[in-house]
Amino acid sequence: MRRLALLAALALALATAARAAGPQFWRLEGTAPFLEGDLVGLSLDSDGRLRLGPSSRPLFDPETPAAWSVARDGKGVLYLGTGNDGRVFRVENGKGSVVFDAQELEVHAVAVSPDGTLYAGTSPDGAVYAIDRTGKARRFFDPEEKYIWALAFDPSGRLHVATGGEGRVYRVSADGKAEVVLTSAQTHILSLAFDARGRLYAGSAPDGLVYRVDPAGKVFVLVDSPFHEIKALEAAEDGSLYAAAIDGRTGETAPRTTPGPQPAALPAPSPVAEVTVTESFALPPPSGGAPMGMVPAVETPATGAPKGALLRIRPTGEIDTLWTSPDDVPHALVRSRGGVLLGTGNKGKVYRVEADGSWALVATLPAEQVTALAREGDGAILVTSNPARVFALDAAPSREGTFVSKVKDTETVSSWGQLRWEGAHPEGTEVRLQTRSGNTASPDPTWTDWSAPSSLPGGEPIRSERARFLQLKATLVGKGDASPVVEAFSAAYLPRNQAPRVQSITVHPPGEVFQKPISVSGEAEVLGQDPDPLTNAASARAAAGPPAITFSRKLYQKGLRTLSWKADDPNGDPLVYEVQYRTTGDPRWRTLRRGVTEPVLAWDTTTVPNGRYLVRVVASDAPGNPSALALTAWKDSPSFEIDNTPPALTASLGPKRDSIRATVRDDASPVRKLEFSIDAGRWEEIHPVDGIADSLEESYEIPLPPAAGPRVVVLRATDQLGNVATARIDVP
What we know:
Layout: H1 2-15, E1 24-29, H2 31-36, E2 38-40, E3 42-45, E4 50-52, E5 54-60, E6 66-72, E7 78-83, E8 87-92, E9 95-101, E10 106-112, E11 118-123, E12 128-131, E13 137-141, E14 147-153, E15 159-164, E16 168-172, E17 178-183, E18 188-194, E19 200-205, E20 209-213, E21 219-224, E22 227-235, E23 241-248, E24 308-313, E25 319-325, E26 329-336, E27 339-345, E28 349-353, E29 359-364, E30 369-376, E31 379-385, E32 389-397, E33 400-404, E34 408-424, E35 430-438, E36 460-461, E37 467-477, E38 485-495, E39 501-507, E40 512-514, H3 537-541, E41 554-556, E42 560-568, E43 576-583, E44 590-596, E45 600-604, E46 611-620, E47 632-636, E48 640-642, E49 648-653, E50 659-665, E51 671-678, E52 684-686, E53 697-703, E54 711-719, E55 724-731
Antiparallel strand pairs: 1-38, 2-33, 3-4, 3-29, 5-32, 6-7, 7-8, 8-9, 10-11, 11-12, 12-13, 14-15, 15-16, 16-17, 18-19, 19-20, 20-21, 22-23, 23-24, 24-25, 26-27, 27-28, 28-29, 30-31, 31-32, 33-37, 34-36, 34-37, 34-38, 35-37, 39-42, 40-41, 42-45, 43-44, 43-46, 46-47, 46-48, 49-50, 50-53, 51-52, ...
């Protein structure tokens, strides 16, 4: 039986010899790791929960790189403004046809009037075209500005045109006559919106202002934001205004001095109202906590400004930052059931942001930007660019969705453990987990195929091949309106154990020791002079990696030699040290101290003979690994001298009693100096007869000055390691 037990233990040790003893856990939890991955057909909310999202289906492919704008007529027909060919498509029942092909390259704005006429704003060399139901187009309005960015109808059915090059807003009557309702100091007016009271809102660039123009023509700067562009605007029934802002300015919190809108310069058929600015509000840049108790979608790093934000301007003038992102740029917004839909780039994401600041990523489309949105019942129409596509976002959830994680780098070839997920799955729903592995940073044909799906709630062992990199794929399957909910994934792995490293050893001067920063006894305690830690196993287990030793007040204690070293472990394992020594010429290493848990040792060298020694520091990761898997590494110090014996000093008067002859001998280290003091006077150093103190024996001759009476001469000899011998000579 004993033999069988030994064989079993040996087999277990061999089976795990290539594995690190301490398991590591790759945990995906919270919004950040899920946003870093790829989501298809899934929704991610601001609490970090994955579930099946609204289903999206393709409606139309215009076979062009960009689609900038969308509008719907009273019959539900869609009109799509595109680039870089300047076309407008009519989309109905999933089929599209070109209804207008402009001379200009881009159609950044389309709008349908109450009578069904389609209007298209083109750029550059901007113009507004009117297209009737038969497809006949005419140049309706041709301003001086180069860009037409937005079109909007007021409650009376009058068209308003936002321009760029010179930031103006025109009001154009049905017969094509225009009047300027806003001339700003901004280069571009990018967005327009009307509220139920007929007030016009305009968003600008490059200073991110939001203007309000009331029906009487009074202009008011509603927001002076810390963003460069107000890309989209939408007014709500409660009087609030939603604004999609992009390209935040770093560190700006105070209002900027911005010239107010100027009176209209162009002649107009009707009087143009006086334009003044009476007050402005400054919006502080979004931070970890949003104003008014709102919760931002993605926390913005402390350094750098957010790329995008969704702002809500209340009727009282208060401003809420409902959502910010350091990565996603909002291009379009539309109010939807339960909040605001926000189309972003450059990963084609659509967010739903609620009034309380909570949010959900509801769609990720196969395009770089979501550039335009339109309401459609309880769903929405989504328009993308790069490539240009039209999608329908339905209210009903998808039947199936997938999440593919970012690649995990375990930093060394690893063995895999259990893969689990946490959350809930209503009856009939399912979560299937798969993995693949490889040894290149990005998945390529050398990686393994996706493993067979695992759907056990308690998890299963990862079946992918041992490798450095791992990737996770999760497929959520629903039933009816029910969806599984995933809050976290966890994958265990065992990195290959790597040997520790001893980087350097310092041998401090003889007698130089360091006081512990905190003394338990109240007396000065020397760092590195603790009892052997093997007598206290707990102290060795408590060592968590290479400790940082803080040298405090320096002391001197004869006979002690302080050794310190630097060591680390690639796996982050705690280390324990053995310190060995030997004399030069002796190949055998002897143990000085075992179980040292701090990288410092104060050696009492009086316990060994004088001579030249070396020290070896052996580092072991045994505290963090079973004995069968523990690894060691070592490093030797430069050789150094140990000499705790004072030199031999002999001295006598010269024949004429006008000098003293002295000889200094040392068995281990060279003589450093000889000093003398006459009648308790100051010490004076004398050089050897041969002129240099470099040998184990030196001879000296000390001349004595003439004196009237007897004198006492004291000699003091010092060797290289600080050992001192003295002698007294009485001079008659």
